[in-house]
Every structure is written in structure tokens, then in C-alpha cells.
Amino acid sequence: MITSESLKKTLGTKIPLNFGADGKFRVLLFSDIQCKEDGDPRTLEAMEKIVAEKTPDLVLWGGDNPHSAPDKESFIRMIGKFASPMESRNIPWALTYGNHDDVMCLDMPMDEMQKTLEEEFPCFISKTTEGIHGISNYVLPVYSSSDKEKISFNIFSLDTGRKLRDLHLDCNIRVDDIREAIKLEEAPLGLKNGFDIIRFDQLMWYWNTSCEIEKENGKTPAIMLTHYCPHEHIAIRKNPEATRMTGEFPEAISPGSINPGLFATVLQRGDVMGMYFGHNHRNSAEGVYCGIRLGYIGCIGFDAYGFKSETDSGRHRLRGARLLTFDESDIENYTSEFILASDYVKFYD
Fold first, then answer.
1. CA distance linking residue 237 with residue 245, whole number of Å
2. In this structure, how many other beta carbons lie within 10 angstroms of the beta carbon of residue 188?
3. What three-state secondary structure class fits 312?
4. Residue 178 has pLDDT above 90, yes or no
5. Residue 107: inside a domain, yes or no?
6. Are 56 and 91 in contact (CB under 8 A)?
7. How far is CA 149 from the centre of its chain?
8. How many domains does the chain have?
9. Which residues pair with 322 in a beta bridge?
10. What DSSP line would sit under 35-97, residue for residue?
11. How far apart are CA 57 and CA 60, in angstroms?
């Protein structure tokens, strides 16, 4: 149960987020960094140059973050490298976890990795909600420029998990049944994969937190960050004109094989204006379905898979990020811009 007192703890952040004197709040999103400390240098170069030019008020990582550090010391060093564009400028940053993030550090479980990030990086403001599935379930309130107690909008993050077979560990489901579901040729949308799903207790936490915020603050708009897209994003791909699609959608969606009802939940709750996600590296599309924007962040990691091409520029054609700019006087009509990494780094053709 969420109480007024527990809500204060939920909304608390290491660094308060506020609209600036210009009435703007800029959220820069990176996803699928997916490289080791000694990976392709263009990943960090692009991140550094984009942060420097766009001057965001908050940076979010959308999952499948830097990986494969062998121990705690190298993990801190690796994350410090990719967090340097924010830490060096005192820009708050947060993350949600993706399907590969259980191997960010090979010597620590995810809860210890999260604790280490909280302790080691002054500008890291991610949190984790105890008592429900996942690690990166949190809400970041962005307050008014004139009233430091009035929330202008919220940023929700939900952890989409790692592997679907993990369901048998905490649900009354046989692992063999899950394996069969993953293999079915006629699975929903033809999704034969082993990706996990958002659990019902996470949906309840979002719903109840949103309701409690409404009691305290009035109906408050929000955006939501997850690693996998909701199943309903297929509507954008199939109906580009009707959904006012921008960007490109060459790659099929790949959420978990089972629809957890995330989109239906946010649609009924009515506070989420837009949902943003990574995971599918070749997609940059954004569209509107049932009044909610659904948009890919893009893949910034030059070590992650890209297009099949014989040229470097072809393989990395849609590497990029996304910038959301909110105007305090008209929050729901925020702008969304896909940023190409090719405008900041050179290809090796």
C-alpha cells in the first residue's frame, strides 16, 4: 500500500529536477550502449558531443548498458567512462535495465550493481522500488520553476526483465511450459523469443503510485521509459500514416512473447503522454497510438548490431539518440527529436 509518507520517499531524488528559468526541461535519451570499456571509441565520442551540444537537464539510459566488467573496480571504471559526459557537467542521469544488463559486471548481482552506482556517482539519480520484481522501477518528478513542491510531470521507469524462463522461479509455472511457449510457431505476433515481461506487481506499483500522486498533486502528465517496446507498437509499423509515424521502422518489434498488459494499463490510467524504449537497434520510429506517443530511442552503441552492410556507414546508419524538450506552459505538446550519431562522428569508409 502506498501512503502519503511512503510517496515522499518514492518521489525523493538525490538531485531535484526542476524546469529552468527559460521554462524548458530537456531529456536526452541514449540506449543500447552495449560495449566494453575498450569498445569502439565512437560510442563515447557521440555521447560526449551530443550532451555538449544539446545541454540536457537529464540524461536517461534505456537499457543494455555498458557490459562485461570482470569485477567491481573495473565496473566502476567502465561506467565512469560512459557517465563522464554527465558527471563532468553535473547533469543528473538515470537508467533502466535491459535484457543484457545482468552481465554489466560479471562479479556482482544486479542489486549490488545498482547500489554501487548509487554510491559511486554523484549525479546518478536512479532508484529501485523494493518489494516488486525488477531493479529499475522508479519515478522521477520534475517540478515547476516557480513552485518547488508542484510536480509538472513525471518520468516513470519500469524494468522489463531479462529472460522469460525466469517466470518459473517466482510464479506457479513449470519451466517446460514456458520453453514450449517460447518455441511456438504461432506465438502472438510471431514472437518466438525468450525475453522476459513486466510483472503484474510492477503494473500495480505504477498504477497505485500514479493514483497517489494525483491525490497529492492533481492529475499529472508523465512519460515512461522501458527497454522493450509494448506489443501495441506494432500498430505504428503497420499504420505509418494513420499514426503519424516519423523516422524509420525497418526492424520487427521484439518484446516478450507474452503481452503483460503494459499499454492497456497506462491507457486506462491516463497520465502517460509518451513511452520510449530501445532494444531494436535499427529502429528510429515514433508515432501516436490511442493518443500516446510510442517512440524508439535509437541505439548509440557502435559495438551493437546494426544494418547488414559492407560499409561502415551502412552498418551504423541509424546510430543515434532522442531528445525530448518540454515547455512548462504546454507540457503535453513536447517536442521529440531523433539525433543521428553521424552528425557527430566519422565513419571508417
1. 8
2. 14
3. helix
4. no
5. yes
6. yes
7. 26
8. 1
9. 29, 338
10. --TTS-HHHHHHHHHHHHHH--SEEEE-SS-S--BSSHHHHHHHHHHHHHHHHTTT--EEE--
11. 10
User: Which residues are CB-neighbours of 346 under 8 A, at least 6 positions away?
Assistant: 42
* For residue 191, pLDDT beyond 80: no
Question: CA-CA distance, 195 to 22, in Å (whole number)?
Answer: 42
Inter-residue contact 46 to 78 (CB < 8 Å): no
End-to-end CA distance of the chain: 57
Helix (H) or strand (E) holding 26: strand 24-30
pLDDT in tens, 42-89: 999 999 999 999 999 999 999 999 999 999 999 999 999 999 999 999
85/311 Cα distance (integer angstroms)? 29
* 258's grid cell: 507474452
Are 189 and 234 a contacting pair, CB within 8 Å? yes
In which domain, by residue range, is 41 found?
Answer: 4-343
The grid cell for 54 is: 544539446
State the Cα–Cα distance between residues 257 and 161, nearest whole angstrom: 13
Summarize pLDDT for 141-172 with one digit per residue, the tens. 999 999 989 999 999 999 999 987 777 667 77
Reading the block at residue 165, the C-alpha cell is 524462463
Q: Which residues pair with 340 in a beta bridge?
A: 320
Q: Would 43 be classed as within a structural domain?
A: yes
CATH number at residue 118: 3.60.21.10
Q: Take residue 166 and report the three cell numbers written for it.
A: 525466469
Name the percent of the chain in helix, strand, coil, to the closest 5. 35, 20, 45
Name the residue with cell 560479471. Answer: 106
CA distances to 26, 140, 154, 216, 222 from 151, in Å: 16, 10, 7, 10, 10
**Helix or strand run (H / E) with residue 206:** helix 200-217
Neighbour tally for 88: CB within 10 Å: 12
More confident residue, 192 or 285: 285
Please indicate, yes or no, if residue 286 is contained in any of the structural domains: yes
Distance in angstroms (rounded) separating the CA atoms of residues 83 and 127: 16
Nearest to 143 by CA among 323, 309, 18: 18
**Is residue 349 a part of any domain in this protein?**
no
Q: Which of 312, 307, 191, 208 is nearest to 257 (CA)?
A: 191
Cell of 169: 522461479
